[in-house]
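User: Some background: our group keeps a shared notebook of sequences we're curious about, and every so often someone picks one and asks for a predicted structure to add to the entry. Today it's my turn. The entry only has the sequence so far, pasted here. Could you supply the structure so I can complete it?
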Amino acid sequence: MSRVDVIMPQMGESIAEGTVSRWLKKVGDEVKRDEPILEISTDKVDAEIPAPASGILLEIKVQEGTTVEVQTVVAVIDTDGAGAGAAGDSPKKETKPEPKPQPKVEAPKAPAPPAARASSAPAAPPPSASMEERLRTRSTPLVRKIAAEHDVDIARIQGSGYAGRVTKQDILSFIDGGEAAASPASPMSSMSPTPSKSPASGAVSHPGVSAWPGDTVEPMSKIRKLTADHMIVSRRTSAHVTSYYEIDFTRIAGLRQAKKKDYEARGARLTYMAFITKVVADNLGKHRVLNSSVSGDSIIYRKPVNIGIAVALDWGLIVPVIRNVDELSVLGIAKAMNDLADRARTKKLSPDEVQKGTFTITNPGVFGSYIGAPIINQPQVAILGVGAIEKRPKVLTLDDGQDVIAIRTMSMFSISYDHRIVDGADADRFMSDLKRDLENFPEGAL
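Assistant: Of course. Here's the predicted structure to add to the notebook entry:
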């Protein structure tokens, strides 16, 4: 009998675990390669996971609602088809991932977050542990294996991953360079301050509130709970400031109306967001600090312009990422946006499509919101909010100096930025250029 394991995939570089939301197949069912067999949920994405091979679903190791670390075996497929009858006649008893023996590691001399366990199930940090501490000790199974082989306590290493999470490169650098690799002056410094120094340290807690008679109480979904935690961490990490700009979309509204049918014939819905994303991408190349991240006492100026577009779903918020947007035309951006949004709603996104964003755009205006002050998507340093684009009265000055009130297609934009490295002048120059380019969008760019 040939068996193929189905594993919990890593749906993003900062994701340490995932939850089995629903099994689409049951034990004994025939499955085809690339056919969806289960749904998983993480803080970044809800997704359908395809079968890695064709055969019979022989065993389900992780039941619905269970959260396990990435790379955990969640099911087994018999690629020969053998054992199908037995599996169908006698379903296997519910099993849970068996923890592997915990490797012995040298205890640190000073108090530190508990070392990650080498088990396939998620580590259970103490209730007082902060989110950053939990992420630091929840490194990938490969990192924990390397740590066990070299008798290294992961908690001693200052990681470069999200919230200080230790990556493979971090632990290899630590092993090669000894204690020097953990020095605060090391180039491998954390993408956010260490828990002991960070203003974000302290447990992410949500105070309890008593339910009243007639109330309905529902537990948060996995994506909702982790999104809530990340929003709190972002507020604690970045010095948020928000600026607001009014932008005239009358010219773009005319261009969009004139080109809409042509774009539909070419397989794309021409939305205002396609214009906005194009102009944002062009200006991020001129205002590089808005396309950066904070790494300890350093600034990482990102070379690629990867823009995340927030998509509101019934079960939460997801941010698919369009890569190298500055190299795309308006048509290319429109097609990419339509495709990513459609697949986000049908849970068809791949792990690569929800990570490595360098800037985020959120569009509350699609629901009629005048404007909002969004929270920065860590470890980015800025996020653009787009308000409702609609006709409003606007005072215009004619060539002869006379003021008149006209009906114009208008919108309010906001930009929330990290004042640790982005000054008000930086954000305002970016927004001034964005306003100028949107109000004077060239027809030849379509």
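Suggested note for the entry: The two ends are 57 Å apart (CA to CA). The chain has nine helices and 19 strands.
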